[in-house]
Automatic annotation (TrEMBL):
Descriptive protein name: Acyl-CoA thioesterase 2
Classification of source organism: Bacteria, Bacillati, Actinomycetota, Actinomycetes, Kitasatosporales
Pfam families: 4HBT_3, Acyl_CoA_thio
Domain Acyl-CoA thioesterase 2 C-terminal: 153-282
Catalytic activity: a fatty acyl-CoA + H2O = a fatty acid + CoA + H(+)
Natural source organism: Streptomyces violaceusniger
Protein's GO biological process: acyl-CoA metabolic process; fatty acid catabolic process
This protein's record includes keyword Heme: no
Length: 296
């Protein structure tokens, strides 16, 4: 299986080992810890598979408690908290090697008519005329480093920054804590709405905390901070497909006390607000020699 989008769908296809217990794979990649979006997406799959499938998820709230180990399976235990007339609530605990690493509460809601209003989508250029991330790196460095090329081959999403990347601290002067990217899966994800929701949950953790870093350091290059997601919340407003272009607008209202807060809004090409996201992350300065060539 070579298509990264197919690998993402496979990653989200959990093994049911008991009525409300599931097991997910954790790829053995050259990462210090399991990617948080993977755990959140798999946990939401587990929650969704204990419902009747007629109620889409409308919100999730999650905490990252311990770093997960790549290459080690993760077990997801689901508690059926409530099955009401309009809402279904599930609580999920992710366990790896006997220790809880993550927990999530998700709420599912039967669609119903109601009021309609939203903040407008920002006026930005469409994705087709924007360079890919690989193009930006190649233009800046004159070549595409092999480490980045390997990452690109595994990347399940096409990512295009609305504004050109800043590569030096000089270019960061006056930058506001904001970022925006167009994204879509690099291949079809099928027609199961739960897969699209969980794939977007995966994607939502990829770069939201970048908004905190924009005024501080270039997003790609040596990193000056050890970063970790602390908690993550999402509200799903409308149906969507994650294999179609969506705009992920991000901003950071505050960073203090070793933590940074970021908010995100996800729009489709028609300007409909699909999803709202909030995340807090831990930021601890690294000694200069430890800053890894990392980013995003």
């Amino acid at each position: 299986m070579t298509n990264p989008a197919e690998r993402l769908v496979d990653l989200l296809d959990l093994e049911r080992i008991e009525l409300d217990i599931f097991r997910g794979r954790s790829p053995d990649e050259s990462l210090q810890r399991v990617f948080g979006g993977q755990v959140a997406g798999q946990a939401l799959v587990a929650a969704g598979r204990t419902t009747d499938g007629q109620r889409p998820v409308h919100s999730l709230h999650a905490y990252f408690l311990r770093p997960g180990r790549p290459g080690v399976p993760i077990v997801y235990q689901v508690e059926r908290v409530r099955d009401g007339r309009s809402f279904t609530t599930r609580r999920v605990v992710a366990i790896q090697q006997g220790r809880t690493i993550f927990n999530l509460t998700a709420s599912f809601h039967s669609p119903e008519p109601g009021i309609e209003q939203q903040l407008p989508m920002p006026d930005v250029p469409g994705p087709e005329g924007l360079p890919t991330l690989a193009d930006e790196v190649r233009a800046h460095l004159g070549t595409l480093p092999e480490a980045f090329a390997r990452m690109e081959r595994r990347q399940p999403f096409d990512i295009r920054y609305v504004e050109r990347l800043r590569w030096t601290h000089e270019e960061l002067k006056g930058a506001e804590p904001r970022s925006a990217v167009w994204m879509r899966a690099v291949g079809p994800l099928g027609d199961d709405p739960l897969v699209h929701t969980c794939a977007l949950t995966y994607a939502s953790d990829m770069m939201l905390l970048d908004a905190v870093r924009v005024p501080i350091e270039p997003l790609w290059g040596p990193r000056g901070f050890d970063m970790a997601s602390l908690d993550h919340a999402m509200w799903f407003h409308r149906p969507f497909r994650t294999d179609e272009w969506f705009l992920y607008e991000q901003e950071s209202p505050v960073a203090t006390g070793g933590r940074g807060l970021a908010r995100g809004r996800i729009y489709d090409r028609a300007g409909r607000l699909l999803v709202s996201v909030v995340q807090e992350g831990l930021f601890r300065p690294l000694p200069p020699a430890e800053g890894a060539a990392d980013g995003g």
